[in-house]
């Protein structure tokens, strides 16, 4: 094709993409359905060109409409773009909470659909068994964009939407890997894999893609960090990453290219926000969103162009086979929705999915561009027998059309019939609250804007009166809360509070007060607050707030690496991030009190505002206690982090001052540029956080223990090597009655509660517990429970007894703590630990 004609074709396709979205909205159809209709019509036009109709057209027009499309265009140009952007946009921290149901749904759904469709076709199709399973793998992947748009339009629970969206986005990789596996069985002219190859080949293909994607993403990130002064170079390098990963995996190493691209995107998504500059990361995400929008639409239109060509040789008997595929695929989806999901819910690995949502998910499982692209790759593969190529192309295309034109066109009507298009009473009340607050803000802003503008006072009063009526109606509607209980009013207030907290995090991020990685972590915690509040009101809010102060799986893994393998870098990074997050959260929580008084009190009244103040105050106290514990645990480092926090705030205020001076014309652009470059250098220095030496911090904690004050430097170093750090959350049982006594614990920060013989005693920083069982050589007779977030130092029995025999200060501390707790046996007048005989 001539270059001019190619450019013209691309321009026309982009025009079609631009017009398809408003047309789909006007026709109330899914966007993918509108693209499929347009593509199919264009494809039908291309078929007509083969008739006498083409004689009336110019050769250029015939060539333009007969656009040559090959499956390689989809697989090597568009597919890496789509998959990489999806992986780059995933909320990985949120997905970690639900990784079990997401992976089960993503992988198991593909396997079940492949087995059901392939098994159903075997009695009716002329293809072989393996070819039937090949078709099952092709039609097992759903269209991610359709599923995502469905759930965004449903206002479904966020956790449920995240699981279904994650499953629909990740099953592309599983389906394509399975497709490549079965394709090797049906191609002629190459040796068929053995059962051993099948058993080991597919896992190795996937694991190879995982390793390659991770390595290339880490390498690309290192180069991008070296190009920090050239943001456009960083962006260009990110564009090369998915294509390089796909080609190296697919053609050089013979592993899964799609898996390599997915892992590369997820690795950059996980590490990039904390390493790249916030502006660079934001630009990177925006560019990839635009590229993915174009790629997704182009792949759909261009694949749809092939529909008439692939159905040209269809027979009536093929229609029956399409119905078999549709029934089998629907049955497989029902097994997942009515079998697997309820099982995961009973195991508390997934939220409960109510019946209306399951019906919507079932009918919303549209097939799209990926299915058409895979079918086209089989139809063009001349190593595949001709009868298999014909049948796979027809059945895959026919089933895709069924989902798009039958399910897609009736989906909105089904959603309305299920009652999912209506807002819940709580969401309706929340929308009224948002409207009232928005109108109040608008009135205040307009009042400031029209002041001293020379406008006619009568006009101003008239407009203010009209707007005031509208505002009064909105406030009265929000206050009425028809059918809303007082408990739900509290939920509405907490949702508004959490929503404002989210906005404040974003504002601080845009002002560069919070680094990108920490901002994402804080937004993750705020989303937990919102979900918890929606699910359980005030109890859910408090539970989510306490959970945000605790230690998650990543922290426990880092502690394990630090204690067992002496690998401290991971723990140091998590601890430093935690400092920054807590300091920023404390500042935001203080500002939220003003939001309660200025906004929420106007709508919900004084009583609810007071309750919200109480909840917020309790949360701030818990946060301050956690922060204080970290100060005690890492005294020097905490001070340095707080200094940097203040400097970062001062730096941003200084930048605002320079911007205002430039705006007022008091300084020129040259001076402003020089000042901002100086600020950028200072910000870069602040972004390089001080190194957290965990070994030195552990030694400092040991020196602060009164019981160990008598140890000399050599003994202290020995204990430092032998002691292990233990982190506990409120409610964790540290010692149970009847357990063998094998360890002694020293409290570095936090507090625990000791229960013995019906009596309870609290121990705090600097105290020890667990020594009595070792000294009396009896099983534990007390139960010790953490009542705050604690950092403990654990010493084994042999080392403790050795120290006890050497150090008089430790012996005195043991006897003193034993006497205070009243745990000595009746009639024992001698100390529990005697001085050693010299």
Report on this structure.
This protein has 838 residues and is mainly α. Helix content is 74%, strand content 5%. The protein has 31 helices and 8 strands. A 4-stranded antiparallel β-sheet has the order 1-8-3-6. Mean pLDDT is 77; it is low at 52-58, 60-65, 823-831 and 834-838. Residues 818-838 are annotated as: Disordered.
Key traits:
838 residues; 31 helices; disordered C terminus; globular; four-stranded antiparallel beta sheet; Na+/H+ antiporter like fold; 4 domains; cell membrane; transmembrane helix; mainly alpha
Number of strands: 8
Report the CATH topology name of the largest domain: Na+/H+ antiporter like fold
Q: How large is the radius of gyration?
A: 33 Å
- Shape descriptor: globular
Count every helix, treating DSSP H or I runs of 4 or more residues as helices: 31
Q: Quote the average pLDDT.
A: 77
- Computed structural class: mainly alpha
Subcellular location: Cell membrane
Organism: Gemmobacter denitrificans
Membrane topology: Multi-pass membrane protein
Protein name: Cation:proton antiporter
Write a concise synopsis of the structure shown.
Helix content is 74%, strand content 5%. It has 838 residues and is mainly α. Helix 7 packs parallel to helix 18.
């Amino acid at each position: 094709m001539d270059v001019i004609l190619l450019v013209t074709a691309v321009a026309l396709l982009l025009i079609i993409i631009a017009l398809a979205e408003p047309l789909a909205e006007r026709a109330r159809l899914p966007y993918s359905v509108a693209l499929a209709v347009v593509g199919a019509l264009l494809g039908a036009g291309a078929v007509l060109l083969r008739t006498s109709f083409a004689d009336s057209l110019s050769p250029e027009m015939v060539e333009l409409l007969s656009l040559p499309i090959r499956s390689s265009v989809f697989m090597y140009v568009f597919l890496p773009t789509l998959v990489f952007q999806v992986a780059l946009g995933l909320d990985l921290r949120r997905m970690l909470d639900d990784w079990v149901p997401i992976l089960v749904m993503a992988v198991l759904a593909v396997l079940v659909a492949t087995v059901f469709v392939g098994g159903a076709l075997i009695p009716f199709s002329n293809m072989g068994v393996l070819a039937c399973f090949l078709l099952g793998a092709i039609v097992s992947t759903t269209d991610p964009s359709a599923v995502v748009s469905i759930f965004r339009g449903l206002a479904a629970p966020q956790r449920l939407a995240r699981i279904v969206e994650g499953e629909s986005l990740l099953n592309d990789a599983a389906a394509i890997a399975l497709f490549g596996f079965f394709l090797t069985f049906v191609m002629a002219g190459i040796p068929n894999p053995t059962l051993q190859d099948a058993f080991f080949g597919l896992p190795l293909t996937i694991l190879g893609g995982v390793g390659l994607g991770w390595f290339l993403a880490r390498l690309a990130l290192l180069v991008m960090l070296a190009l920090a002064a050239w943001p456009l170079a960083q962006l260009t390098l990110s564009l090369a990453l998915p294509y390089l990963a796909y080609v190296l995996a697919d053609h050089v190493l013979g592993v899964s290219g799609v898996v390599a691209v997915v892992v590369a995107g997820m690795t950059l998504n996980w590490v990039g926000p904390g390493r790249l500059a916030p502006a660079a990361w934001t630009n990177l995400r925006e560019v990839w969103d635009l590229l993915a929008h174009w790629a997704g639409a182009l792949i759909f239109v261009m694949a749809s162009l092939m529909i008439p060509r692939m159905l040209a040789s269809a027979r009536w008997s093929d229609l029956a086979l399409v119905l078999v595929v549709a029934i089998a695929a629907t049955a497989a989806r029902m097994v997942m929705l009515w079998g697997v999901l309820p099982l995961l819910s009973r195991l508390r690995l997934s939220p409960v999915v109510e019946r209306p949502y399951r019906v919507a998910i079932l009918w919303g499982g549209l097939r799209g561009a990926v299915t058409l692209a895979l079918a086209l790759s089989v139809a063009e593969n001349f190593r595949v027998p001709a009868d298999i190529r014909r049948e796979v192309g027809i059945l895959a295309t026919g089933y895709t059309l069924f989902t798009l034109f039958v399910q897609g066109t009736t989906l909105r009507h089904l959603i309305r019939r299920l009652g999912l298009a209506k807002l819940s009473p709580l969401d309706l009340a929340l929308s009224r609250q948002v409207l009232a607050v928005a109108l109040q803000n608008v009135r205040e802003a307009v009042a400031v804007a029209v002041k001293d503008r020379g406008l006619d006072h009568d006009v101003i009063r008239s407009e203010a009166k009209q707007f005031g009526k509208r505002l009064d109606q909105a406030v009265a509607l929000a206050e009425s809360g028809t059918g809303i209980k007082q408990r739900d009013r509290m939920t509405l207030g907490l949702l508004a509070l959490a929503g404002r907290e989210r906005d404040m995090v974003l504002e601080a991020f845009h002002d560069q007060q919070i680094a990108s990685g920490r901002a994402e972590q804080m937004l993750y915690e705020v989303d937990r607050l919102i979900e918890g509040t929606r699910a359980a009101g005030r109890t859910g809010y408090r539970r989510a707030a306490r959970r945000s102060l605790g230690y998650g799986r990543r922290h426990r893994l880092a502690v394990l690496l630090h204690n067992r393998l002496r690998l401290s870098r991971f723990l140091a990074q998590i601890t430093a991030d935690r400092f920054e997050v807590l300091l920023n959260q404390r500042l935001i929580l203080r500002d939220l009190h003003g939001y309660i008084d200025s906004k929420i009190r106007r709508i919900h009244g004084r009583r609810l505002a007071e309750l919200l103040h109480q909840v917020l105050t309790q949360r701030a106290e818990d946060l301050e206690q956690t922060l204080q514990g970290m100060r005690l645990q890492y005294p020097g480092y905490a001070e340095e982090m707080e200094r940097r926090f203040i400097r970062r705030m001062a730096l941003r205020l200084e930048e605002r001052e320079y911007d205002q001076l430039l705006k007022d014309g008091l300084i020129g652009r040259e001076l402003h540029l020089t000042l901002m470059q100086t600020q950028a250098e200072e910000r870069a220095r602040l972004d390089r956080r001080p190194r957290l030496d965990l070994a030195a911090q552990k030694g400092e904690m040991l020196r602060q223990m009164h019981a160990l004050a008598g140890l000399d430097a050599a003994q202290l170093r020995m204990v430092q090597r032998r002691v292990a750090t233990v982190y506990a959350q409120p409610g964790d049982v540290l010692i149970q009655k009847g357990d063998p006594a094998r360890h002694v614990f020293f409290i570095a920060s936090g507090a625990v509660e000791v229960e013995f013989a019906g009596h309870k005693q609290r121990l705090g920083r600097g105290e020890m517990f667990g020594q009595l069982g070792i000294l009396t050589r009896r099983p534990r007779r007390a139960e010790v429970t953490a009542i705050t977030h604690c950092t403990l130092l654990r010493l084994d029995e042999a080392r403790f007894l050795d120290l006890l025999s050497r150090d008089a200060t430790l012996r005195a501390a043991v006897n003193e703590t034993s006497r205070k707790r009243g745990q000595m046996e009746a009639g024992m007048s001698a100390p529990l630990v005697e001085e050693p005989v010299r």
